[in-house]
Amino acid sequence: MSNRAVLEVIALDAQDAIAAQSGGADRLELVTDMAADGLTPSRETFGRVRAAVDIPLRVMLRLTDGFAAGDVDALVRAALGMRAEGADEFVLGFLDADGNPDLVTVERVVAEIEGCRWTFHRAIDRAADRDALRKRLAELPGLDAYLTAGAVEGVDAGLPVLVAEAARRGTPGYEPQILVGGGLRLDHLPELRAAGIDAFHIGGAARPGGWAEPVSAEAVRTWRRTLDA
C-alpha cells in the first residue's frame, strides 16, 4: 500500500489547475473569491477546470463569507447545478450562531450530493466544541476529511490539537482524514508527518507572488518533493 501523502491545492481557474497538476498535486479545491475565504465557483469555471485536468476536484459549496449558511435554497441550487455539470466531490461546512454544526443545512446539502465524497472545511476551527462537532457529523454519508489548522489562528497555534486528534484516528468521530491547511508551512511537515497525518492543503503557499498571481507549478513541486522525501 502506498504511503504517499495527499497534496491538495486551491485552484481558481483552469490555469491554476494545470499548474497544480503539473507540480504534483493529488487533488484540487476549486473556489472563487479568496477575499471571502473561498466561495462556490461558477458552473462554467468548473467545466473549464474539469476539462483541463484529470485529478480529483472538490468544489466549494459556500455562497457568503463566514460560516453561516445564508440562503439555503440557493446553496442547494448551487449543489444541484454543480452535480449537473459532473462534480462529484465537494467542500462544505456550516455553524449556527452558537458555534455548533448547522445540521439542518448540512444534512439538506448532503442529501442533494448523495453518493459524493466531501470535506468539512475550516468551520471546525471555529466550532464551540470540536469533539462534539465530529461526533454529531460522524454518521453523515460521504464525509471523508476535515480541513483544519487545529486553531482559528492557523497551524502554528493548532499543532498540538492536530497531533492529539491524529492520535485518535479511527475512534468514533475521528475516522475522516485530517487535511491540514491554514497557514501551513514546509517546516510544519516533519512534526505532522511524525504524528501520522497524511493530507495537506495549500493555497497561498502555491502562489509565491500572492493571490493576484496564478499557482506556481514549481512551488507545488517543492511541496511534493518535501512530502515524498
TrEMBL record:
Domain of life of the native organism: Bacteria
Coiled-coil features, chain-numbered ranges: none
Signal peptide (UniProt feature, chain positions): none
One Pfam assignment: CutC
Family: Belongs to the CutC family.
Cited PANTHER family: COPPER HOMEOSTASIS PROTEIN CUTC (PTHR12598), COPPER HOMEOSTASIS PROTEIN CUTC HOMOLOG (PTHR12598:SF0)
Name under which the protein is recorded: Copper homeostasis protein cutC homolog
Organism: Streptomyces enissocaesilis
